[in-house]
Design brief:
transmembrane helix, binds phenylalanine, binds sodium ion, transport, transmembrane, membrane, single chain, Na/ntran_symport, about 500 residues
């Protein structure tokens, strides 16, 4: 009765899940977050967050997908007919992210080519903002930038091409090639980085613990925030990927492997990035703290500066760095787009080809917004709001609905225990019914407090309302609207959800 696609191998599923988890967050977010929140002392809250929320939620999402065998909307509808909107909301969040994530990959693709000639010159900041992006003021579009458009088209062709090919022949195969390649390339960079002059000072400032920060609630919030974002939780992604698992699959083990592999890559990135920062600080004769950056500034301004000063093979190491960003990001983008490809297929009974064409096509068209001269401003604001008032809030609603309203945890626990080596106990349910809701609830209150008092990034309020608050709200409304549409094939609840 079942014609749902399946992963070919267990390693294929794990590589795809790790491919989704390992993304820009590992490379340009984790090192700075750890550094700013106590350095070596951050590892305690980080590990705590991984074990009490990250891995338990990963197990929850793997179990939901495996048991109910559907995209996020179908899975949540099968838990309870009234929960379908949550699936669409999460799919909507993934959709919004896909529109700008592709653009960052397009920049990185250009920079991997620029590396060979050090095209960015002596002033990479001026190059990025004035030449490459031709950045306009917040709220202004100012026409499409051709040098961004061309790589963007290539990124979409590759991503949608892989999705057309299907779960096994497309997603699985791509991850089997991309992830090992990424690990090798990134290892080469890190080995070179730790042997640079000044690397020791960089590593020292990264690892030296500031225990005075440990009682600070914001440090714990940062740890949980990093874990949620980094593991791609509450995005519909892990539910979708695990809906393609064969009946016999060790869910709990897979979740632990995915969680630890992602954190391992984060640690590696922290070592590589801070070695390189230590090198740059030594070159410029300034303290390491003066050169620490995250996000776009780290990747597209600081790293080009580091590459400029590299003792030898600048071009090669520049290429390896930006190609790593492209591969890490591409495997995440594939997983993001797959959430709505699967959702549309389930709901409207259309073929994968049609679904990729429609869903991927609309996302690709919308991504042109960020290829305009005002693109970076829109991207920055949408990214911040969809993360703060999308993922966190959707994660909170998810645990409340599944654990408290549907009281599903005991059923899910026995489902997972029936097929897994490691047996889930009461601790798993406590993590999800008590710890995770408290932390997420606290984070939400904190987020509202901060954003209602200080406008994010110093942008004009009207800009933040349009490109922040309204985007986050629109996704919820669209989620509810989609759940009101009738199912094409069969009502999801009428399909047996055999245990
Ligand atoms: N988990 C990814 C990372 O650490 C980020 C991501 C965001 C992945 C959105 C999928 C969707 O970078
Ligand atoms: Na990650």
């Amino acid at each position: 009765m079942e014609n749902r696609p399946q992963w070919g191998t267990r390693a294929g599923f794990i590589l795809a899940a790790v491919g989704s988890a390992v993304g820009l967050g590992n490379i340009w977010r984790f090192p700075a977050v750890a550094y700013e929140n106590g350095g070596g002392a951050f590892f305690l809250p980080y590990l705590f967050a991984l074990l009490t929320a990250g891995i338990p939620l990963l197990i929850l999402e793997f179990t939901l997908g495996h048991k109910y065998r559907g995209s996020a909307p179908m899975t949540y509808a099968r838990v309870n007919k009234k929960f379908e909107w949550l699936g669409w909301w999460q799919v909507g969040i993934a959709f919004v992210i896909s529109t700008y994530y592709a653009v960052i990959l397009a920049w990185a693709a250009s920079y991997s080519v620029f590396s060979f000639n050090l095209t960015w010159g002596d002033d990479p900041a001026a190059f990025l903002f004035e030449k490459h992006l031709q950045l306009a003021a917040p709220g202004e579009f100012g026409g499409i930038v051709p040098s961004v458009l061309i790589p963007l088209v290539i990124i979409w062709v590759v991503t949608l091409g892989i999705l057309f090919a299907g779960v096994k022949k497309g997603i699985e195969k791509a991850n089997k090639i991309f992830i090992p390649t990424l690990v090798v390339m990134f290892l080469i960079i890190c080995i070179r980085a730790v042997t640079l002059d000044g690397a020791t000072e960089g590593l020292q400032s990264f690892f030296s613990p500031d225990w005075s920060r440990i009682m600070d609630a914001s440090v714990w919030v940062a740890a949980y925030g990093q874990i949620f974002f980094s593991l791609s939780i509450a995005f519909a992604i892990m539910v979708t990927y695990s809906s393609y698992l064969p009946k016999k699959s060790d869910i709990t083990n897979n979740a632990f492997i995915t969680g630890f592999a992602n954190s391992g890559f984060e640690l590696l990135a922290g070592i590589g990035v801070f070695s390189a920062l230590g090198f740059m600080a030594a070159q410029q004769g300034v303290p390491v703290q003066d050169v620490v950056e995250a996000g776009v500034g780290l990747a597209f301004v600081v790293f080009p500066q580091i590459i400029n000063e590299f003792p030898a093979f600048n071009g090669l190491f520049g290429f390896l760095f930006f190609a790593s960003i492209v591969l890490a990001g591409l495997t995440s983008l594939i997983s993001i787009v797959e959430t709505f490809v699967a959702g549309l297929q389930d709901k409207f009974g259309i073929s994968r080809t049609k679904s990729v064409l429609i869903g991927g096509g609309i996302s690709a068209l919308l991504s042109l917004i960020y290829a305009t001269r005002g693109g970076l401003n829109f991207l920055d604001s949408v990214d911040y709001f969809i993360n703060t008032f999308g993922i966190t809030l959707a994660g909170l609603v998810q645990v409340i609905l599944v654990a408290w309203v549907a009281k599903e945890l005991k059923n899910l626990q026995s489902h997972a225990n029936g097929i897994s080596d490691i047996q889930l106990g009461t601790w798993w349910r406590i993590c999800l019914t008590v710890i995770t809701p408290i932390v997420l609830g606290w984070m939400m209150i904190d987020n509202f407090r901060i954003n209602l008092t200080t406008p994010y990034g110093g942008y004009p309020i009207a800009f933040l309302i349009q490109w922040g608050w309204l985007v986050a709200l629109a996704v919820i409304i669209i989620g509810i609207a989609f759940s009101a549409i009738k199912w094409k094939k069969e009502h999801p609840a009428s399909v047996s959800n055999d245990k």
